[in-house]
Design goal:
Length: 187
């Protein structure tokens, strides 16, 4: 059973007008923004659920925090229908969004940023001090995007060393020496 969100009717063999095609792309944009807003809301609820669980199990958390975390991550994994490893990543993302990245969190909640970009920004900011994170958060959107791309460039490559990010693929196109002129459509 496939569920769709009120797809516009189409007639076989009829060419859509420019306005109809544009409306189709506009609808896709609205759906992506909706998906981003839902992902942001899920992140907020993940954080809130974990906080409620820790508060309810505070004495146990003080004695064995790893066991409580594993239990919370397991519950989140079931609720999100993902692995415990992915649930732990989701929990850390939700937590770190509240550590000096208010504007990023707001852009995510507004549907302007997707979860992949938010995760890259959070990863890039993870090593920063609180003041530096706040400064990054206040930076214009293009600077946050550059920070996200930089985090991708620092991910380990296939050989286990740095440089496995998508940014490296742009710089090492076949037949083009590193540092040569290129058209960068990513930003």
């Amino acid at each position: 059973m496939t569920t769709t969100l009120a797809d516009p009717p189409t007639v076989a063999g009829v060419v859509s007008s420019r306005e109809e095609r544009a409306a189709g792309f506009a609808r896709i944009e609205r759906l992506v923004a909706l998906r981003n807003r839902i992902d942001a809301e899920i992140a907020e609820e993940v954080r809130a659920a974990a906080q409620r669980e820790v508060e309810a199990r505070l004495e146990e958390a003080l004695v064995d925090p790893e066991r409580v975390e594993a239990s919370i991550v397991g519950q989140l994994g079931l609720a999100l229908r993902i692995s415990p490893t992915r649930a732990r990543t989701q929990l850390r993302l939700a937590r770190d969004l509240h550590a000096g990245l208010d504007k990023v969190r707001e852009a995510f909640a507004a549907g302007e940023l997707d979860e992949r970009r938010v995760a890259a920004i959070v990863a890039a900011a993870r090593h920063l001090s609180s003041d530096e994170r706040t400064e990054l958060d206040q930076a214009p959107r293009r600077a946050r995007s550059a920070a996200a791309r930089g985090a991708a460039d620092r991910r380990p490559g296939p050989d286990g060393r740095g440089g496995g990010g998508a940014g490296d693929l742009r710089r090492t196109s076949p037949g083009r020496p590193p540092g040569s002129a290129r058209h960068d459509l990513s930003g």
